[in-house]
Every structure is written in C-alpha cells, then in structure tokens.
Design goal:
single chain, 294 residues, alpha+beta, twelve-stranded antiparallel β-sheet, 9 helices, 32% strand, globular
C-alpha cells in the first residue's frame, strides 16, 4: 500500500541520495558522541536498522528510489541506516537518521533554490558556552527537510528541527528525548550486525500490515531479524519474537500466527509463558517494501 504521493516520495529519496553523494555540514563541535538512532522521534510504530551489506536493494530504496544514476555512489557512502515509522489513523510518516562518510562541499549545488529547495536555519541557545547561540542549516522542499549536523550524520524528516535539537542536546552533554526503549532493545537495534533488525512497539498495526489479518492477540511487542534468502534472492528469511501481555493468549496466538504465516505449528518455539519465536518465515521483498512505505 503506497501512502506517499509521487512528489513527496521523490523529494525524500532525492534528498537522502544527494547527502551521500556529496554534501556539506555546518561546523558544530561535538563534545559528546551522538548515535544516529537517538535522533529519531519517540513513539514509532516500529524502528528498523540495516546496513548496505545486509541488503543493498533495501538500502537503495531508502537512499534513492528515484535518481537511479547515483544509487551506487550514494549507497557506498552509507554505513548504517536507522528508520522510524510513525503510523496513525490520519497519517504515516517515515523518518531517517543515517551514518556514513559525508563529504563537505557543494551543498548549495545539490539543493538549489531553482529546484524548490529553501535554505533554513535553526538557532539553538547555548548558555553553557561563551557563544550565545548555535546554528544548524537545513533544506526544505515540499514535505521533506534534510540536515547534516556533522560530517558523519544525516537527518531526514518532515520536521527535521526536532532531530537537530536532539543532536545539539546530546552533543553538548544533554540527554535525548528520542526513542524511549529499554537499554537492551536499543543496544540490540544499534548493534552493527549483518542482519536487518526491527522492533515494533505497536505490534497490532505492524502484524496487520505484514499479514493482512487482524490479529489481536494482546502482544507487548514484536521484534525480529531479516536476511536475504540465498536460495530465493527476491525474498527475506524472517525470524520474529513475540512477547504476549497475557500468558493465556500464547496458545491461541501461536495457532493464529503460524496460520497467518502459512507455517506448521512446529515452527514456533516457546521461550517462556509469554514469549515465543517463529523462524524460517519467507516473505517477498516487495511485500516488506510496501510495509516500509517504499
């Protein structure tokens, strides 16, 4: 199900691609290390982490769905992509924070005014330094905004200023009001592995989009991994972990979930009275691309 119009999706893909082809950052001294994941908004329906080595196809879709001539160059500059997906009854939003080796030139050429890009400046007060304020440059077009607060981080969002304020706070010794996940979940998502990893704090909507079925089995969360199936390159091999709020729902949930994924009941393994893992799920890439709004 495609939820973005052509103009919005084209603008999003173009701006992220341009960042990793050739870009420039406003010099902002980093007092503390900033992790890109912590710049995402809280409250995501689900979060995803991947690297180009995991799946170049998916990375290219996020980096450059259009602007195909620069895809390989753009992806080669990406170290890791962190994405937040925010679903509500009235809207669906994709937000990205990416790490990589970002050149520092030609930003005005890549985002020219004649193409509709509007340069903007965010000013943040800096009472803890001798400077009275710090400034961050970003570019806006249609419903997309982009900024490069350092030479290793790029941010894209319909409202990138929230991400920039987090960057400023963290880099100057403050705390992030980004994804409020447990330390274990955050570390698991941020682990630089060759798997695609995702965590859904809103499991009902996530499963409905993934399976097409309304599976209200009272889940606390769903998290999982995906790898490209070597035997079927257009598919992922998916492992899902389900945490149930009510142990009485586990047996019913196991039956419904294995049926929804077309698996045998033996594909599920119970780790505790409320926890179950289903592995060896084959899902077409295109199905997940639609889920990821790509």
């Amino acid at each position: 199900m495609r939820t973005y119009g052509d103009r919005r999706q084209t603008a999003f893909a173009l701006c992220l691609c341009a960042v990793f082809v050739c870009c420039r950052s406003v010099p902002v001294p980093e007092r503390s290390a900033v992790h890109p994941f912590d710049l995402l908004d809280d409250g995501g329906s689900f979060y995803l982490s991947l690297s180009p080595e995991t799946d170049a196809d998916l990375t290219e879709r996020i980096v450059a769905t259009y602007f195909s001539g620069a895809r390989k160059s753009a992806v080669s500059r990406v170290a890791r992509v962190y994405a937040g997906f925010y679903h509500s009854r009235s809207s669906r939003t994709l937000q990205v924070a990416a790490s990589g080796a970002l050149p520092t030139r030609m930003l005005s050429v890549l985002f020219p005014k004649r193409a509709g890009w509007k340069p903007q400046v965010l000013t943040v007060s800096a009472p803890e330094t001798t400077a009275t304020e710090r400034t961050y440059r970003y570019y806006a077009r249609d419903d997309i905004q982009i900024s490069i607060p350092s030479d290793t981080i790029a941010c894209i969002s319909p409202d990138v200023t929230r991400m920039l304020r987090r960057y400023d706070s963290i880099s100057h010794g403050g705390v992030s009001d980004g994804p409020q996940l447990s330390a274990d979940v955050r570390d698991w998502l941020c682990d630089e592995t060759n798997e695609i990893r995702f965590y859904a704090g809103s499991p009902l909507s996530f499963l409905t989009m993934l399976t097409g079925a309304h599976l209200n089995v009272r889940l606390a969360y769903v998290k999982g991994t995906m790898v490209v199936d070597a035997a079927v390159p257009d598919s992922y091999r998916v492992t899902l972990e389900f945490e149930f709020k009510d142990p009485r729902m586990l047996t019913v949930g196991q039956a419904l979930l294995t049926l929804a994924f077309g698996l045998s009941d033996g594909s599920a393994v119970r780790n505790s009275p409320t926890n179950m893992v289903i592995s060896e799920i084959n899902v077409k890439k295109e199905q997940l691309y639609r889920l990821f709004l790509l």
